[in-house]
Amino acid sequence: MKTKSKNSPRRAAFPKVGSIPYEGPDSKNPLAFKHYNAGELVEGKTMRDHLRFSVVYWHTFRGTGSDPFGSGTMLRPWDDGSNSVANAQNRVRAAFEFMHKLGAPYYAWHDRDVAPEGRTLAETNRNLDAVAKVLKEEQQRTGIKLLWGTANLFSHPRFMHGAATTCNADVFAYAAAQVKKALEVTHELGGEGYTFWGGREGYMTLLNTDMKREQEHLARFLHLAVAHKKKIGFRGQFYIEPKPKEPTKHQYDSDAAACLNFLREYDLLPHFKLNVETNHATLAGHTMHHELEVAASAGALGSIDANTGDELLGWDTDQFPTSYYLGAYVMLTILKYGGFKTGGVNFDAKVRRESFEPIDLFYAHIGGMDCFARGLKIAAAIRKDGRLAEFVKQRYSSWDSGIGARIESGKASLKEIEAYILAKGDVSPNASGRQEFLENLINEFI
Ligand code: XUL
Ligand code: CO
């Protein structure tokens, strides 16, 4: 196939957009940040380093806007619509132009987002290598880094029964071989992490499912990946991404607590942290704040997939986050636990089907970045103010001395505890939880 000569200039994908500047809260420029000021210090660290924003390749560069009722709508002038390697390479250049102009320091991909599937795994791997070469060039040209890579083990029909949890050993083997390659490419590109999202690792009906065997296979799969990680010297962080349903009716990695339990049961916890996604949390019947606290309090807070669902729709709508409450609650937990180490704020979000113009990609990401930047500033202000933390500290102060301290330290026996209460006769009334007072307090900062 004829490709353009190396020296012929590429037509810009976003010719009318320059680098997105920070213009401050009073700006009316839709192509400027109102809150995200990359170099500004918050709690002694730049916003860039706190937030570690990342653009996802799958929605932003492969999303077509199709839904179960209609075909794609997205206008992507840089994409010739073909499944060729040359088109995939050209798309990489458009993607890096976008991310560079946006000022996002990171990005994330699935193997099959960036390069086309071939007729055999060997051909597919060659395609991936050919595109990875351009990814590497563009990373070096722009300084943009790979937050994490992952393998798509759910789109192709071969994965209809799952990948690691399939009933078919050959499909397990195919998926394992695919992960081996995706890990190696992630390593080659200097990726800071690698994510396992169990796209079809679950079941549609228990009538045909050996749940115990499937879960053991999933653990085996992850142990194989841990071993290969060590073998190739990849030092990035492994993540599990909880999601309760969709595409399957029940996914094994259903929420943060289920993931932690699974990782502990199969001796995988030292090797994994969690990648927590807002819309997955809400599908699980939790808030994002809850899921983050569950992960972080177990020492397993890794990264976040930043998006949001729709209050009225019960599926994974993957919308861009714009709520300052969400941004503030997320950043309160992130700051409380010392910030991201390897992870970041990864926009696993897609523009709406009706937002089909390339410029909408900028509006969406600028809004999401401003939402988290504002959330970071709100969280830092709440922490500086100190009233919220002081309230919580006071609420538990009966544990700091006396019988509380003896129970916490494991020194008190049931006999001692009984004697203590018998001597007191009864307990004095509790203090108010003051929820409304605290909600008002938060509103002072929003
Ligand atoms: C699906 C989802 C995935 C993972 C990566 O709901 O969130 O895109 O983040 O496989
Ligand atoms: Co995700």
Instruction: Give the end-to-end Cα distance, rounded to a whole number of Å.
Output: 56 Å
CA gyration radius, whole angstroms = 24 Å
CATH class identity of the largest domain? Alpha Beta
Q: Name the average pLDDT.
A: 97
User: Level of helix content?
Assistant: 40-55%
Please summarize the sheet with the most strands. 8 strands, parallel
- CATH topology tier name of the largest domain: TIM Barrel
Apparent shape: globular
Low-confidence stretches: 1-5
Keywords, separated by commas or semicolons:
two-stranded antiparallel ribbon; binds D-xylulose; about 10% strand; 2 domains; disordered N terminus; TIM Barrel; single chain; binds cobalt (II) ion; alpha/beta; eight-stranded parallel β-sheet; 12 strands; about 450 residues
Outline the structure in words:
α5 packs parallel to α6 (169-188), α10 (288-297) runs parallel beside α11 (324-336) and α11 packs across α12. The protein is 45% helix and 11% strand. It contains 16 helices and 12 strands. It folds into 2 domains: 41-385, Divalent-metal-dependent TIM barrel enzymes (TIM Barrel); 398-445, no CATH class. It has helices spanning 47-51, 57-62, 85-102, 111-114, 121-142, 169-188, 211-232, 256-265, 278-283, 288-297, 324-336, 358-385, 387-395, 402-408, 414-424, 435-443; strands at residues 41-42, 45-46, 53-56, 106-110, 145-150, 193-197, 202-203, 237-241, 250-251, 272-277, 301-305, 345-347. The strands form 3 sheets. Strands 5-4-3-12-11-10-8-6 form an 8-stranded parallel β-sheet. A two-stranded antiparallel ribbon has the order 1-2. It has a two-stranded antiparallel sheet with strand order 7-9. It is of the alpha/beta class and 446 residues long. The structure holds D-xylulose (XUL) and cobalt (II) ion (CO). Cobalt (II) ion binds at residues 197, 241, 277, 305, 348.
